[in-house]
């Protein structure tokens, strides 16, 4: 039986959070959670509660639903944030709406905050069955996690131990008003059909099925935790750590170390690594393709596209990049040594005073990009081609076309500030300029967020 006091026990992990955010659709489940939190606040010292309603605009009554949520929150003196979203085209409506909701949640959650979602036991069972019939891996069989990280905070599902019928019985006792979304009975949606057609038949034929499946999810979750522990140990061995500011934004794995692992550990490590970077996990075919490319010839540059990102083998590493890759730049004039945003979305050049740095002098300055055959004279060294410098520094092939080159009166004087021409620099006791290249945020996996977990 559901009670606010029982809910309080489930909320124990987040009692010290700065804010509790409640995902409020206005349906039975979230309204029960809203009311239970309201009652608990009257007798317990709890974090401040704020609610979030995502307006998808998919139903003619969507405005009325938002107004209902506003009215219910106002009556309980709980602030409500109503955010309208536009769904991406191409994906299923269910998937697009879910992705939009999580984008909203992540935009609001602050450091240490908790997002509370009202998923219940029936939702968990439906999730398991849906993943089974659709096809899933080990992590999918563990169901929706009770809690996980979300943006700068955490997500918690405190109602997974109660059935919907228990929540409904309590909501009726409390005289709650809630919204009935017609989509929840529209069997054109796969999950709705599973809920109203398949699930009742399974319960009738195998009454113990529900407990068996949920127990399986617990066992699988435990096994997944063990696999994650092993993957974390392997990642510490193969993850490339870059002091090089050019390469640090892009995660990579050392191929030589990775190839020392068994195929099963390689597969487990790759899934774990991609999950840490919020990436959609590859299917079986894509995963096999990536693993087959690991021992390829050193001059091979295979690429595997998966969702919004790509895995690219280059310079002895496996790199994680956005699907579009790194933007190639376009020529532009440079009027002065000031922070300069590069055209074609290629990031920014940052200029800072530094003894012995690049000197500004009168002339025609421009920013350009590699065409082939460029050479530069470094301090105490003979002229070198950019190809030689890139090879010596292990700059991967995919990054080279994006590196900004500085020219003065047609002569190459700096390669993105990393290599400066000897006669273009100030003396060690004279002030010049340090130049650094900041790649565009959309090119870097850590800034984009390529996929989301349950």
TrEMBL record:
<dbReference type="InterPro" id="IPR011063">
    <property type="entry name" value="TilS/TtcA_N"/>
</dbReference>
<dbReference type="GO" id="GO:0032267">
    <property type="term" value="F:tRNA(Ile)-lysidine synthase activity"/>
</dbReference>
<dbReference type="Pfam" id="PF11734">
    <property type="entry name" value="TilS_C"/>
</dbReference>
<dbReference type="InterPro" id="IPR014729">
    <property type="entry name" value="Rossmann-like_a/b/a_fold"/>
</dbReference>
<keyword id="KW-0819">tRNA processing</keyword>
<feature type="binding site">
    <location>
        <begin position="25"/>
        <end position="30"/>
    </location>
    <ligand>
        <name>ATP</name>
    </ligand>
</feature>
<dbReference type="GO" id="GO:0005524">
    <property type="term" value="F:ATP binding"/>
</dbReference>
<feature type="domain" description="Lysidine-tRNA(Ile) synthetase C-terminal">
    <location>
        <begin position="365"/>
        <end position="437"/>
    </location>
</feature>
<comment type="similarity">
    <text>Belongs to the tRNA(Ile)-lysidine synthase family.</text>
</comment>
<dbReference type="GO" id="GO:0005737">
    <property type="term" value="C:cytoplasm"/>
</dbReference>
<dbReference type="InterPro" id="IPR012094">
    <property type="entry name" value="tRNA_Ile_lys_synt"/>
</dbReference>
<dbReference type="GO" id="GO:0006400">
    <property type="term" value="P:tRNA modification"/>
</dbReference>
<comment type="function">
    <text>Ligates lysine onto the cytidine present at position 34 of the AUA codon-specific tRNA(Ile) that contains the anticodon CAU, in an ATP-dependent manner. Cytidine is converted to lysidine, thus changing the amino acid specificity of the tRNA from methionine to isoleucine.</text>
</comment>
<keyword id="KW-0067">ATP-binding</keyword>
<dbReference type="InterPro" id="IPR012795">
    <property type="entry name" value="tRNA_Ile_lys_synt_N"/>
</dbReference>
<keyword id="KW-0436">Ligase</keyword>
<keyword id="KW-0963">Cytoplasm</keyword>
<dbReference type="Pfam" id="PF01171">
    <property type="entry name" value="ATP_bind_3"/>
</dbReference>
<dbReference type="InterPro" id="IPR015262">
    <property type="entry name" value="tRNA_Ile_lys_synt_subst-bd"/>
</dbReference>
<protein>
    <recommendedName>
        <fullName>tRNA(Ile)-lysidine synthase</fullName>
        <ecNumber>6.3.4.19</ecNumber>
    </recommendedName>
</protein>
<dbReference type="Pfam" id="PF09179">
    <property type="entry name" value="TilS"/>
</dbReference>
<dbReference type="InterPro" id="IPR012796">
    <property type="entry name" value="Lysidine-tRNA-synth_C"/>
</dbReference>
<keyword id="KW-0547">Nucleotide-binding</keyword>
